[in-house]
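Researcher: Good morning. I'm working through a list of sequences from a screen, and I'd like to move beyond sequence-only analysis. For each chain I'm collecting a predicted structure so we can compare shapes side by side. This is the next one on the list. No need for commentary yet; just the structure.
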Amino acid sequence: MTDSDLTAVMLIEEQIYPHPWSRKIFHDCLRTGYECRVYEASHSVLAYSVMSAAAGEAHLLNLSVHPQQQGKGLGRFVLQRVIRQAREQSADTLFLEVRISNHIACRLYESEGFNEIGQRFGYYPAKNGREDALVFARPLL
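Model: Good morning. Structure tokens for this chain:
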């Protein structure tokens, strides 16, 4: 992912999230040196991921797939790439948070070896206040 990808990334982000990340958040992730990737076909961004890694741990901060590409295995492909990237960064565990209502994502994470390890109350902004997040972890060794 580069700054030139952010317009396409924001188009996806704004379609799929009621409270999307801002362009500045993505820019800051790029500037900070996080693993920010786009996944393209025919010069169109179909998915993206943002991961941070430090001190033996990695954290998947964002994994998003264009709405027209969801349900076709692209999310699983991106997640598997992130797992590989985390290993390459010498992380022994990959963590993530997911909205408690996002049952499809929860099933994907569980099918790829993630285990629920906790809950963050009121973590995400929501239509009527705040929504809890489930915390997942996957050992990488």
